[in-house]
Design a protein that fits this description.
The structure holds two protein chains of two kinds.
Chain A: H1 2-10, H2 12-33, H3 51-63, E1 68-74, H4 81-96, E2 100-104, E3 110-114, E4 120-124, H5 133-144, E5 160-167, H6 173-187, E6 192-196, H7 198-232, H8 235-258, H9 270-293, H10 299-329, H11 337-358, H12 360-367, H13 379-393, H14 395-413, H15 431-443, E7 447-454, H16 460-474, E8 479-483, H17 485-497, H18 506-516, H19 520-523, E9 532-539, H20 544-559, E10 564-569, H21 573-593, H22 602-608, H23 619-629, H24 640-652, H25 659-671, H26 683-717, H27 726-740, E11 746-750, E12 757-758, E13 760-765, H28 766-800, H29 803-827, H30 838-855, H31 862-891, H32 897-924
Chain B: H1 2-33, E1 39-48, E2 56-65, E3 68-75, E4 83-88, E5 91-96, E6 101-107, H2 121-125, E7 133-141, E8 144-151, E9 161-167, E10 172-179, E11 185-197, E12 200-210, E13 216-227, H3 238-243
Antiparallel strand pairs in B: 1-2, 1-13, 2-3, 3-4, 4-5, 5-6, 7-8, 8-9, 9-10, 10-11, 11-12, 12-13
Classes of the chains: A alpha+beta, B alpha+beta.
């Protein structure tokens, strides 16, 4: 086949056609490749068909906004009017810029306050910008009293704010991150800004990698060219090598443009790979030609030398090239689309370079026969002959060293961290690192776990079960907050009923849901149909260890919750036990939320619940009832004096007042001569109105007061040191609200009854998705490595017509893989999308050295064959190893950590592959005729 | 120079002429929209959130007299029996049958959606545009005038600008485009299929599209409409709200 090819290329006309045709093809490809589109979508790197990722995406579709971009802004005083004005405007601008589900910030969060005239006021927390010191102070007091806002949207010291930008489902997160950055920097040009959360971090990694590639690729190519020129010392030959490589890139890009395949960030590494790896084929062809031609050959001799090169060297070059194509081609087994694209089109580029090295390059030489050179025995050749001969003589110690290194590598391969660790993608003090420290320090972290609950989440029983899980989660180490629908329902209930708890009746929950309809913040917690709810768990670290720990704990907690249930009444002991357990959890979890140092275990809290409660003081009840009776919410028009008397008479009846007795007492009061200004025939109706209007509020007053009294007694028993001021009072109120759940009429209990309702619990979120990605990367790594190794073994076996020779040729690559992956284990470099590319590249490129060495393996005996092979190939092998190493080493000079990892590992791998080739093959070779057995 | 002056004079005259027309149109519009002594209207509300398969349905009956309104929900089941009394733009009371109590809700969030719809409390309660906006006629054709509404000086208007298409036969708006302070078009309301009783007209369908929420929309479909029923002033009291008489 190669003789036929040689005959064709050596025909002058055919050679001219090949050269012109190739150049025309290059021109066409150059035009076509201009149409290539760029795909910046980070989400495209998510593997397909992975259940964890599908779950995450389904949840994202249902609830929207799981991808949260976090913007931290530092300032001297958040309450400065100018700062608040800009923050308010910025929150609106980001929301309206598109791709955003909602923006949560200090200036957009809703607030409920007691209205002095009775009832509640709903407004934004910062409903107006203060314009004087007194208003500023008032706003500061109001904001800092909102426990759910401090440490979430504003730092405790009031010098920093955090905006949560929730991306819409299917929003292009990179575009969102860029838009948001533009808006924020325009709004706060002189402030220190931190960019956290997955959209910013992934965009940072993406952008910095792309910038490094754009900046460093020319230098990497320049280094490769310089090494070619220095080692080759032939300008025309060097240019031919570069033209073939450039053609590989052009053909690949043109094919992408024609097939409408977008260019992605991984493909930006293609030029370096092609220049480093692909140029070797032309170099090998030309160097053999130069050696075959010699320095003094005339044109006929040069053509003969070219023919010999094509017949002898082309098969070796083709085999070497095919191993690289196989290595890169193995990427097609991956479930990450951009990686498949990278593998496919880089393999196409390599293949093009390979084809041109055995067609275009000889054709050029045929048309313009280059002068050969005398194959010399320079210092490299002679040195390598000495070294390899020593290695062969010391086969046992060298073999043992190779074995030890391989075993060591194999051991440390097991230590390679395969977890997706976002922090491993950026360096110390890089913007994401600074943001992480800022968020951990001021706002409890930036990582979120989501837990989806599917079932009838419109019932009080399920809402309390959700809250129970939330309380359990919030007591886990590293969990800084848990946001869930039960808390929102409780908050609205507080506005409507004066107490922050999940109401007891289905219809009450339904009504509260009705008020929450359409609110963006609620859409992220519960679906409209109330068949699914989501808990958002904030974790105070982005380290893989911590995320894994929280994830495992969360999964264990979730597994303990019932999946089939019935609603049972308080008469059932299991209900009472459950309610008690939930209340204990609430007291502990709320203590943590309010920073109350409650040094009590659940058993101690449980015991304290039964504490003796002192009698209820009635004066506060009278005051509160009076307040109601004089408010606009009471529809009976009473004078303050009348209201005072009504309050006295009503409260005198005690907590267990009977409506009939109360009506009689009020009737007596209203009939008192001086009570009413003038007689009325509607007295009975007035009394009836008072009973109707004040009945429920009075019951509520007693209920709340009794719970509060009990809560105080429990906390006293537990020696709880309450924070001074409002925070301590608010904690007491939360404990009191929790205690009311002890009297809830029903609770959810586990049931195997066929009619039981179902609940499903799914842990999801970015940490779970990272796990999915990690699994995918591991699978991809195994599959592509297996495929690449298998293909290479087949190619080698066919090439050398022997499975043993095939194994021998593959051995140095196996050693290299073990050293490189073992090195990753030692150095703590994670296996990620970038580093998972290494294996196949190492196999493809590294095995070339063994191919060339074994192809030149000829001699009377093994030692002579070794010497012959080393003399003929050592310079080319080292030149190539240095070229690839230099090209990839330059990529480590940038800021992108993924690129640094890939660059340094590939550089080291190529040098190790060369060393392993010159060590393993001399030690393991048992024949003298590997080169003679070459196929082709 | 003389021709230029004439042109300016003509433009000024035309502006004056339009300003007068706008005042007249606005006055007629407010009169037409508030001509009834009282109205009792039953609405079906279809609320479509972006990305959701099925719209949410609500039903309520509003008893309206001037700026006061009493709204009683009959669907969905969760809201049945809930009544809302609106006395003015910032003050309302709600009766919660599930809790058996009335709560006063003073809201400054008048731009917030009414019960999750694309209609804000302001949209629901604005019945006299002339109190809030000044108008300028932009065009007139086919019996319709397009007016530009700008907030009156010293009045806090819910929108920074509105473009209102008025049917000059009945002096009711058929389309209103709302703009925010950055002059971005944020909402479009259409009112269609007007029917009239005596000289009082009311749209059968009103639809509000919120362009800032990926095209979320709410449609109010009129189910029943009674005019001048002689509603008692006590109807709009908290006593009535709780007693439900």
């Amino acid at each position: 086949m190669y003789r036929l090819l040689a005959d064709l290329v050596l025909n002058r006309t055919a050679a001219a056609v090949i050269v012109v045709g190739t150049l025309l093809l290059g021109a066409v490809c150059l035009v076509l490749s201009g149409d290539i589109t760029q795909d910046d979508d980070v989400l495209a790197f998510l593997p397909e068909g992975n259940s964890d990722i599908e779950t995450f995406q389904n949840i994202n579709d249902s609830f929207g906004g799981l991808d949260v971009a976090l913007v931290g802004i530092e300032t001297d005083d958040v309450f400065e009017p100018a700062f608040l004005t800009s923050l308010k405007q910025l929150s609106n601008d980001i929301r309206e810029a598109g791709g955003v589900e909602r923006v949560l910030s200090l200036t957009s969060v809703d607030d409920f306050t007691e209205d002095p005239m009775g009832g509640i006021i709903t407004a934004e927390l910062v409903d107006s910008i203060p314009d004087n010191d007194a208003d500023m102070a008032a706003l500061r007091t109001k904001v800092m009293s909102r426990d759910h806002v401090v440490g979430t949207m504003i730092s405790k010291d009031g010098t920093a704010v955090l905006l949560y930008v929730f991306a819409s489902a299917n929003a292009e997160t990179r575009a969102l991150a860029v838009r948001t950055q533009d808006l924020v920097t325009a709004a706060f040009p002189n402030k220190k800004i931190y960019w956290g959360g997955a959209p910013f971090v992934s965009t940072y990694i993406f952008d910095i990698t792309q910038a490094d590639m754009a900046r460093l690729t020319p230098w990497a190519v320049l280094a490769i060219v310089a090494i070619i020129l220095v080692s080759f010392r032939d300008f025309a030959g060097s240019m031919l090598a570069l033209v073939t490589t450039s053609m590989g890139i052009l053909v690949s890009r043109a094919a992408m443009a024609t097939l409408d395949v977008s260019f992605n960030i991984v493909l930006s590494a293609m030029p370096v790979i092609l220049f480093a790896v692909g140029s070797a084929y032309s170099i090998h062809m030309l160097s053999r030609y130069y050696a075959n031609a010699g320095p003094d050959a005339d044109e006929a001799a040069r053509i003969a030398a070219l023919r010999r090169t094509m017949i002898e060297t082309a098969p070796v070059v083709v085999a070497a090239g095919l191993t690289t194509v196989a290595g890169l081609g193995s990427f097609v087994t991956m479930d990450i689309a951009p990686m498949r694209t990278f593998g496919t089109f880089t393999a196409l580029g390599i293949f093009t370079t390979l084809v041109l090295s055995i067609t275009f390059v000889p054709a050029c030489v045929r048309l313009y026969p280059l002068k050969g050179w005398q194959e010399g025995e320079g210092i490299v050749e002679l040195g390598m002959v000495q070294i390899t001969a020593w290695a062969r003589r010391s086969a046992i110690p060298v073999g043992l060293v190779l074995l030890l290194v391989s075993f060591g590598g194999a051991f440390y391969v097991g230590q390679v961290d395969t977890r997706m660790d976002q922090s491993a993608f950026f360096s110390e003090d890089s913007p994401p690192d600074q943001a992480q420290k800022f968020l951990d320090g001021h706002f409890g972290g930036s990582q979120f776990l989501q837990i989806q609950v599917q079932g009838d989440v419109g019932t009080p029983e399920v809402l309390r079960e959700i809250r129970q899980l939330a309380d359990e989660l919030s007591l886990l180490p590293h969990v800084t907050s848990v946001n869930h629908v039960a808390d929102v329902v409780a908050t609205v209930n507080h506005a409507m009923d004066g107490i922050r708890r999940v109401p007891d009746q289905n219809n009450q929950v339904g009504l509260l849901y009705g008020f929450l309809a359409g609110k963006a913040s609620v859409r992220q917690l519960v679906t409209d149909e109330r068949t699914s709810a989501l808990l958002h768990v904030k974790i105070g670290s982005n380290k893989a260890d911590v995320l894994d720990e929280v994830l495992a704990s969360a999964q264990a907690l979730v597994a303990a919750h019932p999946t089939t249930w019935v609603s049972a009444k308080r008469s059932d002991e299991r209900v009472r036990d459950k309610q008690r357990g939930q209340v204990v959890l609430q007291i502990l979890a709320t203590a943590q939320l309010y920073g109350v140092p409650l040094e009590a275990d659940p058993a101690a809290v449980d015991a304290a619940i039964d504490v003796e409660v002192p009698p209820l003081p009635l004066e506060p009840i009278r005051r509160e009832l009076y307040k109601f009776l004089t408010s606009e919410e009471c529809f009976v028009a009473l004078t303050p004096a009348q209201a005072k008397r009504v309050a006295e008479v009503s409260v005198d009846l005690g907590a267990d007042f009977d409506e009939v007795v109360w009506t009689e007492a009020l009737t007596t009061l209203f009939n008192e001569p001086d009570f009413l200004d003038e007689p009325t025939d509607e007295l009975a109706m007035m009394v009836d109105d008072v009973v109707l209007s004040a009945g429920v509020p009075l019951e509520d007053l007693y209920t709340r007061a009794l719970a509060s009294q009990r809560g105080q007694a429990i906390l006293a028993k537990l020696d709880a040191r309450l924070p001074e001021g409002g925070k301590g009072e608010r904690y007491q109120a939360r404990v009191a609200a929790a205690l009311l759940d002890l009297d809830a009429p029903t609770a959810l209990i586990r049931s195997t009854n066929p009619d039981a309702s179902t609940l499903s619990w799914t842990v999801s979120g970015l940490p779970v998705m990272y796990n999915g990605l990690s699994k995918s990367v591991q699978t991809n790594q195994t599959t592509s490595l297996g495929m690449a190794l298998g293909l290479v073994l087949v190619i080698m076996t066919v090439l050398f017509r022997s499975p043993t020779a095939g194994l021998l040729a593959t051995a140095p690559t196996a050693v290299t893989l073990l050293v490189v992956y073992g090195g990753m284990g030692v150095l703590g470099i994670h296996l990620d999308i970038g580093t998972s590319m290494l294996g196949s590249i190492i196999i493809g490129a590294g095995v070339d050295y063994a191919v060339h060495l074994m192809a030149a393996w000829r001699g009377a005996d093994v030692d002579a064959a070794l010497k012959h092979a080393v003399l003929h190939t050592a310079p080319a092998i080292w030149t190539n190893a240095l070229m690839v190493a230099a090209g990839f080493f330059i990529l480590t000079l940038g800021d992108a950590k993924p690129l640094q990892n890939v660059g340094v590992l590939t550089a080291v791998a190529m040098l190790v592959a060369a060393v392993a080739t010159f060590a393993a093959i001399p030690v393991l070779a048992r024949r003298a005729d590997y080169g003679d057995r070459l196929a082709g | 120079m003389g021709r230029f002056s004439l042109l300016i004079a003509a433009l000024l005259w035309s502006g004056v002429a339009h300003a007068e027309d706008a005042v007249s149109i606005l006055k007629n519009m407010d009169a037409a929209m508030n001509r009834a002594e009282d109205q009792v209207i039953q609405w079906k509300v279809v609320n479509q959130e972006p990305g959701k398969k099925d719209p949410k349905i609500m039903e309520f009956t509003s008893t309206v007299a001037g700026p006061k309104a009493l709204t009683a929900f009959s669907a969905p089941a969760d809201l049945r029996g809930t009544r809302v009394l609106v006395l003015n733009r910032t003050q309302m009371y709600i009766y919660l049958p599930q809790y058996g109590k009335v709560r006063r809700i003073a809201s400054s969030m008048t731009k917030a959606g009414f019960m999750g719809t694309t209609y804000s409390n302001d949209d629901m309660s604005t019945s006299r545009f002339g109190d809030v906006y000044t108008g300028k006629v932009i065009s007139e054709a086919d019996g319709k005038a397009v007016l530009e509404f700008m907030p009156k000086a010293g009045v806090e208007a819910p929108y920074s600008r509105a473009m209102v298409t008025v049917d000059l036969k009945i002096y009711h708006p058929v389309e209103i485009k709302y703009f925010n302070e950055k002059d971005a078009h944020i909402k479009t309301e259409t009112r269609s299929d007007y029917t009239c009783q005596d000289d009082v007209c009311l749209a059968t369908v009103m639809r509000m599209v919120d362009l800032t929420r990926d095209g979320a929309w709410t449609e109010l479909q009129r189910l029943d409409w009674k005019l001048n029923t002689g509603v008692d002033e006590d109807t709009f009291s908290t006593r009535n709200l709780q007693r439900g008489e």
